[in-house]
Structure formats: C-alpha cells, structure tokens
Amino acid sequence: MSLALKLMLSPLLLAQAIGTRKRAPVLPEAHGPREGQLGSGGAALRLLIAGDSSAAGVGVALQDEAFAGHFTRALHKRSGRPLRWRLRASSGLTTRQVLDLLRADPPPVADIAVVLSGVNDVIDLIPPRRAVEHRAALADWLLTSGRAQHVVFAALPPINQFPLLPQPLRRVMGDDARRHDDAMARWAATRGDVHHVPIALQLSPAAMSRDGFHPGEPIYRACGEAIARFIAERVISAETRK
Q1: Domain that holds residue 71
Q2: CA–CA separation, 135 vs 231, rounded Å?
Q3: For residue 15, what pLDDT is reported?
Q4: What are the residues facing 37 on neighbouring strands?
Q5: Are 84 and 106 in contact (CB under 8 A)?
Q6: Is 98 within a domain?
Q7: Mind listing the pLDDT tens digit for each residue in 81-100?
Q8: Could you tell me which of 104, 159, 176, 201 has the fewest CB atoms within 10 Å of its CB?
C-alpha cells in the first residue's frame, strides 16, 4: 500500500486499531515449566527460547502445547541428542524489549538461541530498518556475551491472515509485516552466526486461538517443527561437519 493511501486511510486505521484492542480478549501466557531436559547420556544441546507472547505460549493452556513444547520435542527427535532448554518471554514485548528482558536477568549459556518477536514491532510502528537494528543488538549481545553460539529468528507471521483484524487494517499490517520480514531476511543472510527461518503458514480461524490474533496449538506445532527441522539440517549438521 502506498504511503499516500495509508495517510488517507489513517483515521479509519486508527479507529479500527482502537476498536480491535477493545474487543480482543486478554489471554494468559501458557502454564507449565519454562525449563527442562529431554533425554540423557552425552553432552546436552543447550537451548534458549526468547521473545514475546508467541514464545510465551499465549493462545494455548500449557507450554507442552505451545512453541517451546513442540520445538524441543521435535529437535530432540531430529537431532538424536539430549536437550536442556529455557524459556524467557513475556507478552507485549518488542524486539528491543526482549533484549532488555535478557539483560536484566541474563540466561545461562546456550548453544542456540531461538527468538520469536516482531509482531509488536509492527504494532508499535517501528520502521523495518530500526527493527533490524534492534535484532542486531539482540543477536550481538547474545553472541559477544557468550550466551549463544547461534541465534535463530523466526519469520514474522502473515498478519494479513489474522482473523481478528478488520480490513483495511489487516492488509496494512500484513504489508508492514512483510517489509519487516524481508529486511530481517536480507540482514540475516549477511551473517554466519544468525539465521532467519521462513515458515509457510495458513492461519485459518480453526488453527488460531480464540482471540483470532494469537496462534492456536496447530500453528505452534507447525512453527516448532519447522524451526527444529531448520536447526537440525542447517545448524547442527553444519557444526558436525566442521
């Protein structure tokens, strides 16, 4: 959508955004442990999962049904290695705020950090270039502080498919999310220690949570399995070949 058209629609978009916030139910983060271990014997692969509500499991009842549960089980199965994992996430965080959260209470050292964030960057109208700068700051802090050896960013979801959002707000936010994701992918391609994982999703109402904005269990499962596959094939296998 052109800037001129967006400016023309801005009063309508603002009204729709306010109305959407008012009618959207406030869902809790998933219950359950935020750290754990799968398997035993041999050196465990250490994982950090960090991010916003999508990392915290908003939309499902338990962490076993959320991203953390599906991702760790899938990676354990694909890698054949024991895993130790920790989750640091909170609803409503931008990428910059995810970094603030980790700096305030530094997590234990991990081999791989997986970050789920970005939707709140779009909501807060953070420009794509600035959002990439915040991702770079987050990745660099994790890497240079020795908190992780690899940082994996999940792609932004197709916001243009969120059932909660009315048109034209849905289209505008979807376009903004694509620009953010394209900028992130271009930046990650310049790094050997940072990865961007595209995920093909169809966000039908049945696959989403009851608020029409957060993932439901099928989406968490698809994302967890996709990122586990990427890490097993592109990160762990590459390290093994060294």
Answers
A1: 29-241
A2: 19
A3: 77
A4: 84
A5: no
A6: yes
A7: 999 999 999 999 999 999 99
A8: 104
DSSP the chain: --HHHHHHHHHHHHHHHHHHHHHS--PPPPBS-SEEEE--SSPPEEEEEEESHHHHTTTSSBGGGSHHHHHHHHHHHHH-S-EEEEEEE-TT--HHHHHHHHHHSPPPP-SEEEEE--HHHHHTT--HHHHHHHHHHHHHHHHHTTS-SEEEEEPPP-GGG-TTPPTTHHHHHHHHHHHHHHHHHHHHTT-SSEEEE-------GGGB-TTSSSB-HHHHHHHHHHHHHHIIIIIIHHHHH-
- The closest of 93, 76, 92 to 40, measured between CA atoms, is 76
pTM (two decimals): 0.93
Cα–Cα distance for residue pair 208/46, rounded to 1 Å: 30
Strand pairing report for 45-51 and 150-154: unpaired
* Residues paired with 19 in a beta bridge: none
Q: Which whole-number Å values give the CA distances from 80 to 83, 227, 241, in the listed order?
A: 9, 16, 16
Average pLDDT, the chain: 92
CATH code of 124's domain? 3.40.50.1110
Per the model's pLDDT, the better-predicted residue between 11 and 198 turns out to be: 198
Q: Is residue 166 part of a domain?
A: yes
Query: How many structural domains does the chain have?
Result: 1
In the predicted structure, residue 32 carries a pLDDT above the cut 70: yes
pLDDT score of 238 more than 90:
no
Residue type (1 letter), 130? R
Cis peptide before 168 (omega within 30 of 0): yes
pLDDT beyond 70 at 1: no
Output the six-digit token pair for 11.
Answer: 């009063």
Q: Is residue 106 part of a domain?
A: yes
Quote the pLDDT of residue 239: 63
